[in-house]
Amino acid sequence: MCVSTHVDVDQPGTGGWRVLAPFRFREYRLLIGALSISIFAEGMWAVVMAMQVIALDNDPASLSLVATCLGTGLVAFVLVGGIAADRLNQRSIIIAVEAVNTAAVLTVATLSSLGLLRIWQMAVAAGALGIAAAFFFPAYSAMLPRILPADQLLAANGVEGVVRPVFQRAVGPAVAGVLVGVTFPALGAFTVAALFAVGLILLVATRPPKPVAARGDRERTHVLRDMRDGVRFMVRTPWLLWTVLFASVFVLVVLGPIEVLLPFIAQNRFADGARMYGFILAAFGIGSAIGALAVSSGRLPRRYLTVMMVMWGAGSLPLVIVGATSSFPLMALATFVVGVTDGAGSVIWGTLLQRRVPREMLGRVSSLDFFVSLAFMPVSFAIAGPLSKVVSMETIFVAAGVVPVLLAAIAIVAAKMPRDEIENPLR
User: Fold this and answer.
1) Residue 333 to residue 329: CA distance in whole angstroms
2) Containing domain of residue 94, as a range?
3) pLDDT surpasses 90 at 169
4) Could you give the C-alpha distances from 406 to 221, 235, 316, in angstroms and in order?
5) Number of domains present in the structure of the chain
6) Are residues 270 and 327 in the same domain?
7) What is the distance, to the nearest Å, from the Cα of residue 394 to the centroid of all Cα atoms in its chain?
8) pLDDT of 6 higher than 60
9) Average pLDDT of the residues of the chain
10) Does 216 map to a domain?
11) Both 309 and 198 in a single domain?
12) Percent of the chain clearing pLDDT 70 (strictly above)
């Protein structure tokens, strides 16, 4: 597949550590720099937002309202974001997104410092951030193949797979907690806004990728027809369809127990539950980063579909230990292993989308994948708590660990993945 690039070197070379190869391209350096700063800002914002809401109204319902607005904006617009990524200039989209992020958080910070901030204003800002995020991911995914050669997409996805868990799940929240703890929420919000502004400057400094070949009447097709074409492509592509189906049920079965029940398990089983819970999450984030780095440092596996599904399926088994053990080291090790397999599988998946989905359809397919996961996430959160009053947490975690194994096996067989990956080599 021919890839259009706009770079500052003639050839990236083949020597050195493979995961660092994309950094030879100027546009990628600017893009990943902006992405890293934005992810760090998002990690900080999760804590700043919570502390600011608590400072305004110490009521869990208020925080739930603000968080729901952010999630609703993301879910409601992610499919639109995919269509936009295929019809509009991706660079312009991500620049606009970063501008919205900067403006929304800066507004919150200013109102807070003046004593004028209200919960409804926080909710509006959160909704704006959610909508912006819905446009960013599809545009970013569709832009990478335009600035990097195909054989370096695995490494680029690996870099993101390292940056996201480290900055968003560990460093960002930790820094925000310390900053807000010794000062006040408004200063945290100003810091987040400044980080988004730096990301915006880096994005503006990028050069537009070379235009792809004209698609004639394709540019004038209806938006709904664009999305229908994306859905049709997904349904007619077995490896894609069955992976998305697997992911949707995986999210339903796994995320609720981890996000809703794990804090209570830590609180009930350890003397310092809050601190231990933070360390458990950190173990997952570190594992995810290591898994992503390990996969992206080498070549894409020849049996890439099978490896990916085994990673996600068998990698969930340690959740059985999480539900049963009262040993912190064992629980941390289990979540670390889950993180390693999650990070490794995610890097392979992102690379497959960019290499096997037609470029003119990549934004829509990426958004469909994202939408399916997001759609089941709140359902998983909603049922995990009530279910734990009927079924023991140990049983729920057994299901979370075992069901993905069965789902992965079904997906591999139903999509005939071993034959497909041999017929479509990517090495």
Assistant:
1) 6
2) 21-151+164-209
3) no
4) 41, 21, 11
5) 2
6) yes
7) 28
8) no
9) 83
10) no
11) no
12) 88
Q: 324: Cβ–Cβ under 8 A, 6 or more apart, which residues?
A: 394, 397, 398
CB 282 within 8 A of CB 170: yes
- Rounded Cα gap, residues 425 and 310, in angstroms: 18
**CA pair distance 137, 323, nearest whole angstrom:** 33
The verdict on residue 158 lying in a domain is no
Decide if pLDDT at 39 tops 60: yes
Check: CB of residue 19 under 8 Å from CB of residue 296.
yes
In a domain, 11, yes or no: no
Query: Above 70 in pLDDT, residue 343?
Result: yes
Reading the block at residue 252, the tokens are 């339903």
Whether the pTM exceeds 0.70: the reply is no
> Alpha helix locations (H) across 217-327?
223-235, 238-256, 262-269, 273-296, 304-314, 319-324
**Within a domain: residue 6?**
no
Q: Which of 53-57, 176-180, 303-307, 316-320 has the lowest mean pLDDT?
A: 176-180
pLDDT (mean) for 105-134? 94
- Residues 243 and 168 grouped into a single domain: no
Instruction: Report the distance separating Cα 402 and Cα 169, nearest Å.
Output: 25
In the block, tokens 């999210």 appear at 251
Residue 149 is classified by DSSP as -
